[in-house]
């Protein structure tokens, strides 16, 4: 089975690197330097999506938005021009479930199947092969793609039909965003009342407030690291998708919508490309306290 990968950014590049440990890949990205990084590790570069699709049985995508995925598939020189009936696209974008279902229906008319399989666990999890994959597909299609997904990680969760993988990813990310915002509000309150960040991190990691925020993100605050691991703008996109899905399906998301507003304001003030951890800045400013001296 020949596999191609489209979208070699931070996350897509890490997932592609992991797959390369098991088999060669054909790769494509709009940024030549991203392609070169994978070619240096043995990948085969392709000139466009159509060329990659012609030479691949399964095409995997990891792009910023579902609109980018649509353009990569249906745009000029896109995947569809090289996709024959029976081929499969596995989309690892954190995308819009309804748009995913629409694209799947359009592709099905051409005899092509679309599976959504976003991930959670970050670049570190992708490189280590421990990342979680959330899959939306029929039982039959899931059985076909599972061996491909196992090249990335054994932690594969079948979440139901088409689009449900993306629903699960939105549940995951809006929860993560809300926890981080609430944690940093509480930490700012604690700092204003005499607690050090180091003390709070140590205690919270041993108590009931333990989370990925206390375990993975507060250490970055303590070290002073401002490296971009997950961009604020991407988290805002995910929370916006989750809250819109709530509106569309009649599921009130009062906390999620408050956090969406917080992220929107922070994105206006600091720009969408800063790390999600930077939301500590407007939170500590509102509390008139310095938790992190950035």
Mean pLDDT: 97
Q: Just name the CATH architecture of the largest domain.
A: 3-Layer(aba) Sandwich
Strand content: 5-15%
List the secondary-structure elements in sequence, H or E.
EHEHEHEHEHEEHEHEHHHHHH
How many domain units? 2
Rg over CA atoms: 20 Å
- Helicity, as a percent range: 40-55%
Shape: elongated
Number of strands: 9
Adjacency order of strands in the biggest sheet:
3-2-1-4-5-6
H/I helix tally = 13
Spatial separation of the terminal alpha carbons: 49 Å
CATH topology of the largest domain: the name is Rossmann fold
Task: Give the C-level CATH assignment of the largest domain.
Answer: Alpha Beta
Structure described in brief:
This protein is α/β, with parallel strands linked by helices and 294 residues long. Helix content is 53%, strand content 11%.
